[in-house]
Structures are given as structure tokens and as C-alpha cells.
Write a structure and sequence with these properties.
This protein has about 650 residues and is of the alpha/beta class. The chain contains 22 helices and 27 strands. The strands form 6 sheets. It has a 7-stranded mixed β-barrel with strand order 21-22-23-24-27-26-25, surrounded by 4 helices. Strands 7-6-3-4-5-20 form a 6-stranded mixed β-sheet. Helix 11 crosses helix 13, helix 18 packs parallel to helix 19 and helix 21 packs across helix 22. It is globular and about 70 Å long. It binds alpha-methylisocitric acid and iron/sulfur cluster (SF4). Iron/sulfur cluster binds next to loops.
Length: about 650
């Protein structure tokens, strides 16, 4: 059977009961791949963590008691919490560094750059699997990796040698033809995909890119596209590994990491969409969702108060050189503020060496350190009601740190053009596009990546816990029966930023769940924590695509701490549903979506015999004691996930094994 690229990557990493005969053998020709939706276990070759999720991931890894990671390569990055307005972030960095040194993990020091950008440059390898405690880990798909985001606990388990479990994805081919026109960029490609598929369109799927248009896209451009596949809700996104990939790895002095990876001829896909790159124009995602797409020309003239260039989506050397060329010998409009965060030390140093950094500074750009920064609300919050154009990947309401800011997601070209005019500007109106050439060799200096101590010296490293690090909540085994109160009812497309906000004030407490709990659902119900305390045991009711966005397991751990026992929705986003299971919270789905309308906050809900239903796979009926009604619920749990819930979460389950 001819295989597509995704199937090849999966086939090469299946473990457990779905393992297939080795590639190239006779048996493989007749072997069946698992069918979409079937639970599969994958071997994880590489892991990455960042500091906002990493502190918890390493606390969990510590709790597992595994002395050294069992992966081929694991890297701990410090890139999110770099605004150190108190001791908390620095303490967490020190804790992560000590864990990394002790347990066999490479440590990318603060200042070295954003995890996904640095991983692409220095560690990503075509054909390998990468699991990261960050939803934008699929950036690695730009190199032909099967790269997936997950909660910290899943990454901790993978570091300990455990497999990663997902439902076998469907595969959508995005067939690219033609070539991008001047001023049109990779960002516009993924915005077009988002326009067509929406923020729910990728759930349960890998988005595979192919067709003749692929050859014209550089690896950083491909990575922009796979990065923002996270906003489709996709399990991952992937490009072939071809001559372009080879040239990129060679320029990173890693030619030996290259292998060719292409889909088989006549490979089949569950869906195919065609995009003619030549026909694309500059696009923008309008407030407050990444799939709310309009052509930039329709927005032209709107005042641009702020412009930010950077984030793991658009902070490569190529992006920065484009911005510098547009801004060269010009001045940022007096009504606008422009901030720029190059994605890595490599990018920033090369910009400095070739003079482009001087052009940016001279134009009035505010240069930020190589980190996530404004993307996660770590500084640079816009003014009240301000319009902010950002080359980032998420424009969820309030994420910038300003509740009423209007954030638009755009390409570096549109961003730089608009910074000059102070107005939303279609870059095509600027005349001839500057030509950018990428260097044949990048500047290689891994001096900010600290290797772990040798295995024989593990005992010499002490783990350094700061006072901000508090124990994390543990769930209990699922009880026979359960009664709880509906503590909150929310609508469709609730993001993990709604559930557990980030930003400069809250992010420093990612290792302090009791403190974080005050902010849970703050945007939806400022008294949520109070209501949970009154209820004792709570249930959250949600609409479709509940939990989209970030991979932060805090969006499950904090509700767990507050006594939430179940979340009942119309549908879930993948990573969040998995995080709920790992935390021991039941992720349930209305069998009839219309029942959503019948429940109100405060209703008393009764789950008779819930443990037995989960054990035996029988139908779950929930009684609404307040209204005297009953509703049928379903779930999409694999047998393993049911075991995890029965045991009281993944940590308890892993310990029981
Ligand atoms: C994000 O972009 O929302 C984050 C911050 O990178 C998160 C991870 C986190 O919450 O720490 C993500 O995308 O997974
Ligand atoms: Fe950092 Fe933003 Fe990327 Fe998340 S999306 S990893 S906060 S740059």
C-alpha cells in the first residue's frame, strides 16, 4: 500500500500492540496501518520543554524517579518567563537547569532564543518524532519531523522512555502549486488554510503539505506554516524533507542529519485541499480568533497603534531581514510603536553582524530579547482599545495583557509596512519588494546550550527548589458514584487562555498551583475559584472545541486543585482533553448537543455508578437533580485513558504499572 508521509512517520514509530513489521520487509506490504481514531502508541525520539510548562514537567519527572532521560535528545529551553520582575522566574530557571544537568537534558539558557526556533536550527532531525510541552512544537514539521505538542506530564513520561498515545490521525493533504508573489509570505499561506479549515478544522488530523509549490518554500517558511497548524487544532503538520531541507541543514552545519522523506507515489489522503500560491494575497486574522481572516487590502487605513514582529511563528533570519529591508532608512510612524524580538541568538547575532540590526534600530524599532515576550503577554501590552498588528499565532481576547486591545495577526511584510505608515497597509502598495538572500552558512555557536553532566556524575547535582515551587495537586481514584455542581457554563472555542490565563502577572506562578487558582477562568467568571470552593465538587459545562490553544496542563491541574471532577462539552481540543485525563478529570461529551442548553450554572448533577460505567464501557447517564432531567453522555477515551481515570490520573497510573 503506498503511504503518505505522515503514515510513514507513524509506521516507523509505532510501539506496543500496533507495531508493524520493519519498513522494507515483505510483511509490511500487506500490513494494515491502524485506522483513524484507533488509539496508537508512538516512540518519542526527542523532547523539548519550555520554562512556563517545564517547571511542572520536571516536578512530575522528579516524582517518577527516573534518573536519566531515555530519549535520543531532550532539551530544556528558557524562553517564556524571561521578564524577571520578582525572584520567581529566576528560581524556576535555576530549578530547570539543575534538573537538566542531572537528568541528561540539554539546557538552552535564557537569551538563546525561542524553543521552536532554536530547535529547528540546532536539534530537529527529519524522520524523528518530537514531543514538546508546548502546542507549537509542530514547528519541527517544517524539517520533516513528526512533532507534536503535549501536556508536561506526557512529556515527562516520554523522557522516561514511555510512549506517546494519540488517536491515529486522519491526513489532509494541502497541495501547493505556483509560487508566492512578491510581498506575499508563508504567513499568508497558513492564514489561508485557517480561513478554509477554521480553528476546529484540524482536530484529529495531521496536515501534510505537498505538491510542486513546496520546493519554492524555505525551511523557515515551512516552519511558519507548520507552527501555526496548531491554530487549526491539528495533531501536527508536516512537510517533506527534500533538497531545500538538505541545504538548510547543511547551512546549520548539520548535513549528516538529513534524510530524504517523501510520500509514496499515489499515496492516499483522507482529504485534499489545493492552494495556488500565486493567487494568494496578504491576509490578516482579525480579532479575536486566528481563523477570522480578511485580506489586508480590506483593512487598509485602520490606525495601527502597535506593531510587533517576532514569536515562534515569524522570527527567523529570513523574516527579520525582510523587516529590516523594508524599514531601512525610514522611521517608524510617530503614532505607532514597533517592537522586534528575533527568534534566537543565532538570528540576532547574524542581524548584528550584517548590519540589519542597525537598520532596525535606526528606524526606531524597540529591540527585545530573543524570547516569547509580547506573544504571551510578557510586556508590550497595547494601550486601551489599541490596534496591535502582530506576526504571532494567537489573537485570543486579552492574551496581549490588555482586555480591550484589538490584535490582528499578519506577516512580517504587512507588519513592517504598517509600522511605517501607522495604518494597516497592504505591503504591495510599497512598490518593489526587497530581495532577501539567505546565507549559505549560518553562524554556529552553541555556547548558550549547556550539556548535561555525564551519567556517572548525576549524583553530584543537587536539585534546586526555590520558595515559589509548591507541590502539585494529585487526583484520587475515580469513586463509585459522583455528585457535583455545575460551577460554570461557557460557550464554543474556549481557549486554555480563558481557563488558565498567562501574562506577566500570572506566568511566574506556573509552579505554584494554589496561587494560580485565583485566576482560573477569571475572564469568564472572576469568582470562579470562590464558586468552586462553595460547591466542593464541580463540573464545567462547555461548547464546541473546548480547550483549544496552548498545551498548558495548568488548565487541567488548576481546575483539579479547585475540585473540578468533570468537564462536559460538545467537543474537545485534543491536547486539553488528554491533559484532563492525565489530571484525573473526566472529559465527557453530550451525546445530544442540544442537552447543553438544559444545564445552568448551579445545577446539581449526579453520575450514578460512574466508575462501573467507565470500567465496563456502559452508557453514562447524568441526572440533573435541580431540573429533574437526565442526559446521555459519551466519551472518546481509549482503554488506557479509562484506566488512567480509574487510577486517578497518569502519575498514579504510571506508578501502579
Ligand atoms: C502559548 O503560546 O500559549 C504558550 C505559552 O507557548 C503555551 C504553553 C504554555 O502555556 O506555557 C502553548 O502554546 O502550549
Ligand atoms: Fe512562545 Fe508565543 Fe510561541 Fe507560545 S506561541 S511558544 S508564547 S512565541
Amino acid at each position: 500500500m503506498p503511504l503518505n508521509l505522515t503514515q510513514k512517520l507513524i509506521q516507523a514509530h509505532l510501539v506496543g500492540e500496533n507495531t508493524l513489521p520493519a519498513p522494507g520487509t515483505d510483511e509490511i506490504a500487506n500490513a494494515m496501518l491502524p485506522s483513524p481514531g484507533q488509539s496508537i502508541a508512538l516512540r518519542v525520539d526527542q523532547t523539548l520543554t519550555q520554562d512556563a510548562t517545564g517547571t511542572m514537567a520536571y516536578l512530575e519527572f522528579e516524582a517518577m524517579g527516573v534518573p536519566r532521560v531515555k530519549t535520543e535528545r531532550s532539551v530544556a529551553y528558557i524562553d517564556h518567563n524571561t521578564l524577571q520582575s520578582g525572584y520567581e522566574n529566576a528560581d524556576d530557571h535555576r530549578f530547570i537547569r539543575s534538573c537538566a544537568r542531572k537528568h541528561g537534558i540539554f539546557f538552552s539558557r535564557p537569551g538563546n532564543g525561542i524553543c521552536h526556533q532554536v530547535h529547528l536550527e540546532r536539534f530537529g532531525v527529519p524522520g524523528k518524532t518530537l514531543l514538546g510541552s508546548d502546542s507549537h512544537t509542530p514547528t519541527g514539521g517544517g524539517l520533516g519531523m513528526l512533532a507534536m505538542g503535549a501536556g508536561g506530564l506526557d512529556v515527562a513520561v516520554a523522557m522516561g522512555g514511555g510512549a506517546y498515545h494519540i488517536p491515529m490521525p486522519k491526513v489532509t493533504l494541502v497541495r501547493l502549486t505556483g509560487a508566492l508573489q512578491p510581498w506575499v509570505s508563508a504567513k499568508d499561506v497558513i492564514l489561508e488554510v485557517l480561513r478554509r479549515l477554521t480553528v476546529k478544522g484540524g482536530v484529529g488530523r495531521v496536515i501534510e503539505y505537498g505538491g510542486p509549490g513546496v520546493a519554492g518554500l524555505s525551511v523557515p517558511e515551512r516552519a511558519t506554516i507548520t507552527n501555526m497548524g496548531a491554530e487549526l487544532g491539528a495533531t501536527s503538520s508536516v512537510f517533506p524533507s527534500d533538497e531545500v531541507t538538505k541545504a538548510f541543514l547543511k547551512a546549520q552545519d548539520r548535513a549528516e542529519d538529513w534524510i530524504e522523506l517523501l510520500p509514496d507515489e499515489n499515496a492516499e489522503y483522507d482529504a485534499v485541499i489545493e492552494i495556488d500560491l500565486s493567487a494568494l494575497e496578504p491576509l490578516a486574522a482579525c480579532p479575536h480568533m486566528p481563523d477570522n481572516i480578511k485580506p489586508v487590502r480590506e483593512l487598509a487605513g485602520i490606525k495601527a497603534d502597535q506593531v510587533c514582529i517576532g514569536s515562534c511563528t515569524n522570527s527567523s533570519l529570513q523574516d527579520m531581514l525582510k523587516a529590516a529591508a523594508i524599514l531601512k532608512n525610514k522611521t517608524v510612524h510617530p503614532g505607532a510603536s514597533l517592537s522586534i524580538a528575533p527568534g534566537s541568538k543565532q538570528v540576532l547575532t547574524m542581524l548584528a553582524q550584517n548590519g540589519a540590526l542597525a537598520d532596525l534600530i535606526a528606524a526606531g524599532a524597540r529591540i527585545l530579547e530573543s524570547a516569547c515576550g509580547p506573544c504571551i503577554g510578557m510586556g508590550q501590552s497595547p494601550g486601551s482599545g489599541a490596534v496591535s498588528l502582530r506576526t504571532f499565532n494567537r489573537n485570543f481576547e486579552g492574551r496581549s495583557g490588555t482586555a480591550d486591545a484589538l490584535v490582528y495577526l499578519v506577516s512580517p511584510e504587512t507588519a513592517a509596512a504598517s509600522a511605517l505608515t501607522g495604518l494597516f497597509t497592504d505591503p504591495r502598495t510599497l512598490g518593489e519588494a526587497p530581495a532577501i538572500t539567505l546565507p549559505e552558512r549560518f553562524l554556529i555557536d552553541d555556547n548558550m546550550i549547556e550539556p548535561p553532566v555525564p551519567g556517572s556524575e548525576t549524583d553530584t547535582v543537587e536539585i534546586e527548589y526555590g520558595p515559589n515551587i509548591k507541590p502539585f495537586p494529585r487526583s484520587e481514584p475515580l469513586p463509585t458514584d459522583l455528585t457535583a455542581r455545575a460551577v460554570l457554563k461557557v460557550g464554543d472555542n474556549i481557549t486554555t487562555d480563558h481557563i488558565m490565563p498567562a501574562g506577566a502577572k500570572i506566568l511566574p506562578y506556573r509552579s505554584n498551583i494554589p496561587h494560580l487558582s485565583q485566576y482560573c477562568f477569571a475572564q469568564c467568571d472572576p469568582d470562579f475559584a470562590q464558586h468552586c470552593k462553595q460547591a466542593g465538587r464541580g463540573v464545567v459545562i462547555g461548547g464546541a472545541n473546548y480547550g483549544q490553544g496552548s498545551s498548558r496542563e495548568h488548565a487541567a491541574l488548576v481546575p483539579l486543585f479547585l475540585g473540578v471532577k468533570a468537564v462536559i462539552v460538545k467537543s474537545f481540543a485534543r491536547i486539553h482533553a488528554a491533559n484532563l485525563v492525565n489530571a484525573g478529570i473526566l472529559p465527557l461529551i453530550f451525546a445530544d448537543a442540544a442537552d447543553y442548553d438544559h444545564i445552568e450554572t448551579g445545577d446539581a448533577l449526579d453520575f450514578q455508578g460512574i466508575r462501573g460505567h467507565l470500567e465496563n464501557g456502559t452508557v453514562i447517564i447524568m441526572k440533573n437533580l435541580t431540573r429533574g432531567e437526565s442526559y446521555m453522555l459519551r466519551h472518546e477515551l481509549s482503554p488506557r485513558q479509562r484506566e488512567i481515570l480509574l487510577a486517578g490520573g497518569l502519575l498514579a497510573y504510571t506508578k501502579n504499572l
